[in-house]
Design a protein that fits this description.
This protein is an alpha/beta fold. The chain has a single domain, classed as Zn peptidases (Aminopeptidase). About 40% of the residues lie in helices and about 20% in strands. The protein has an eight-stranded mixed sheet, with helices on both faces. A hairpin with a 2-residue loop joins strand 1 and strand 2. Helix 2 crosses helix 4, helix 2 packs across helix 9 and helix 4 packs across helix 9. The protein starts with a helix and ends with a helix. The model has no long low-confidence stretch (mean pLDDT about 90).
Length: about 325
């Protein structure tokens, strides 16, 4: 009798272990959305790390600080972005909007023909910097994303697009505007609804240049499924964005120069940047990020300088984003 009881207990324990293992595997698949098979790398050229460094250094030194309290620098940043966009041959336009009795500008670089019946692909990054604790340089946050956007424009120059592609540099992303309809990305997303246009996919570049240190996850789930070493780039989306996350991850992986992972979960766990405003208007979007404050001790601090960034890995991220644009345009 005792032997039978032991056998039964052993079977129960094995069944529980097997069930836990299955749950663990399924949870990992849901969160990380593995991809199968290589994606073709479509770019003829590669991103230039020196270009990225030059953009970041200019934004963080000559134009420091870049915030709503220093409109001259914010306007100079917009002018600089316009000039860089124009050199790629795209159609450059401004989207002006008024907040707090001041006029701010989203700067838009458009490739392809805009047709109201054709859904657009949007790639965006905010060029203003956090300023609630002082006149900060804002290198990773988010001169890195802005520099990446400018380099994506250079890589896409001359391509004949089947769908309209809008590269957008946003203003007013940081507090006191964050999580309000006064964000530049909210203004841009609203313009699609006002024009009865749609967004097929949106890719947000939010802090893409810091690749050192350890991850300090604020969730036990993240600690369980993601590495502790902060040497990867992440593609973040909600459940409805999982298809886009997989494609963007595959496009970055096709470059082969940077480790890339993805997170698919509740959107509220990843709504800390401009993609949130496309989500809340019914559009599919993902955020490309180095995980920000989870690894970067300089987040929203004076230490967020150009010297702390890894421009070689940044260049590989940019290659992947441009590759994703070409892949999405080809489908």
């Amino acid at each position: 009798m005792g032997h039978r009881i032991l056998l039964s207990l052993r079977r129960i324990i094995l069944a529980i272990v097997a069930a836990v293992a299955v749950i663990f595997i399924v949870a990992g698949i849901i969160l990380r959305q593995p991809t199968f098979g290589p994606m073709r790398f479509r770019l003829a050229n590669r991103a230039d790390a020196n270009n990225l460094r030059r953009h970041v250094e200019y934004l963080t030194t000559e134009l420091r600080p870049r915030d709503f309290r220093h409109m001259t620098n914010l306007d100079r940043a917009a002018d600089y972005i316009e000039r860089q966009f124009a050199s790629s041959g795209c159609r450059v336009s401004e989207q002006k909007y008024d907040v707090m009795d001041r006029t701010f500008r989203n700067v838009i670089c458009t490739f392809g023909t805009v047709n109201p019946s054709e859904a657009a692909l949007v790639v965006g990054a905010h060029y203003d910097a956090f300023s609630m604790t002082g006149n900060l340089p804002g290198a990773d946050d988010n001169a890195s994303g802005t520099a990446g956007l400018l380099e994506v424009a250079r890589l896409l120059a001359g391509h004949q697009f089947k769908m309209p592609v809008e590269l957008v540099a946003y203003s007013t992303e940081e507090p006191p505007f964050f999580a309000s309809n006064q964000m530049g990305s909210a203004v841009h997303a609203d313009s699609f609804l006002e024009q009865d246009r749609s967004v097929r996919a949106m890719i947000c570049l939010e802090m893409i240049g810091y690749f050192q240190g350890e991850e300090h996850y604020d969730s036990p789930i993240l600690r369980l499924f993601y590495p502790r070493k902060g040497d990867f780039i992440a593609v973040v989306g909600g459940w409805d964005d999982r298809g886009l996350a997989r494609r963007v991850k595959s496009a970055i992986r096709a470059d082969g120069g940077v480790r890339v992972l993805s997170f698919t979960g509740p959107r509220r766990m990843g709504d800390a940047s401009d993609q949130r405003n496309y989500w809340y208007r019914g559009f599919t979007a993902v955020m490309i990020t180095d995980t920000a404050y989870l690894r970067n001790p300089n987040y929203h601090a004076a230490g967020d300088t150009a010297e702390t960034l890894d421009y070689s890995r940044m260049a590989h991220v940019v290659n992947g984003v441009a590759n994703a644009v070409l892949d999405l345009d080809d489908k």
